[in-house]
Specification:
about 290 residues, alpha/beta, two-stranded antiparallel ribbon, 8 strands, disordered N terminus
Length: about 290
């Protein structure tokens, strides 16, 4: 079977790793690698629903609920339209086309916070920071820092795994022009706030990618009970801020986003990215790489 040329309908295309055919977007619970959701997972359709369904004390269930959220009409329309129309270079692949849940260790020492999935990256592959050039840079550096099993992350189900770390996007759906609205950001916020509450007992470092990740992390950490100073600390590459809560202390660590703009211009180099993650290991009191 092949993908229909009618953008209102979709048939099936084979997953690039498993060969199993999927529709685009992928219905929950149909066998996509690493899919946390199922046909029975409750769906948030409003901001009020998000606030209610995010109040889960089970991280796996939270991930499942994130993965089927439909609370922001503009983002739902965009992610699904991209999934059906596809970039030409991926026209033979099914697209995930759903929100991207947090991914990695359930008890991370290091939490990596970014902005949102890319339309033809995470929105295609079903894994955060996977399938685009920013993710290529990020995973290569995480691997060199001993925080990822493999140097590449190409698709859910490729055998990649994080070591003592977890990744999350502040906004879980791919937004048009990579720009979520303030309303979309606020609607999505309960997901990351609850995720931080659940992993807080083990987290010692939060690495933020870019100024948006920094600002989102500060808002979420405050909502999760961390004492965040006012005025808010300013973002900077390698900037560090110590924060405390009843769950323990952590360090917020800034990092330029590995966007093509930053990497092509040399604003961010592999050495600079590696230095951030090696510093995160040090602050998290993880063994030095190679030991």
């Amino acid at each position: 079977m092949t993908e229909s040329s009618d953008h209102g309908r979709t048939a099936f295309l084979p997953h690039p790793l498993t060969g199993q055919p999927f529709a685009s977007p992928v219905p929950p619970g149909t066998g996509w690698p690493e899919d946390p959701g199922s046909a029975a997972t409750p769906v948030a359709r409003t901001a009020r629903d998000v606030a209610r369904l995010a109040a889960s004390d089970d991280l796996a269930e939270l991930d499942a609920r994130v993965s089927v959220c439909s609370a922001c009409p503009r983002l739902v329309a965009w992610r699904e339209d991209v999934a059906v129309r596809k970039r030409a270079s991926f026209a033979d692949q099914p697209y995930w086309g759903r929100p991207i849940a947090g991914w990695g260790s359930a008890t991370p020492a290091i939490l990596v916070v970014g902005l949102a999935p890319a339309a033809n990256g995470g929105n295609r592959t079903g894994r955060v920071f996977t399938g685009d050039s920013s993710g290529d840079w990020l995973f290569a550096s995480l691997h060199r820092a001993g925080l990822a099993r493999q140097a590449t992350s190409v698709h859910a189900g490729d055998g990649q795994a994080l070591v003592g770390a977890r990744m999350v996007a502040a906004v879980r759906c791919a937004p048009p022009e990579n720009k979520p609205t303030p309303e979309e950001r606020d609607t999505c916020a309960p997901w990351i706030e609850q995720e931080i509450r659940l992993v807080a007992p083990s987290v010692r470092v939060v690495v933020t990618l870019g100024a948006f990740g920094w600002a989102s992390a500060l808002r979420s950490l405050r909502a999760a009970g961390y004492a965040v100073p006012r005025p808010l600390p300013k973002f900077g590459h390698a900037a560090e801020v110590a924060l405390s809560s009843a769950a323990g202390d952590l360090t917020l660590l800034g990092c330029y986003h590995p966007s093509q703009h930053n990497t092509f211009t040399g604003r961010l180099t592999p050495q600079m990215l590696d230095a951030v993650f090696l510093r995160a290991r040090e602050l998290a009191d993880l063994p030095a790489v190679g030991r």
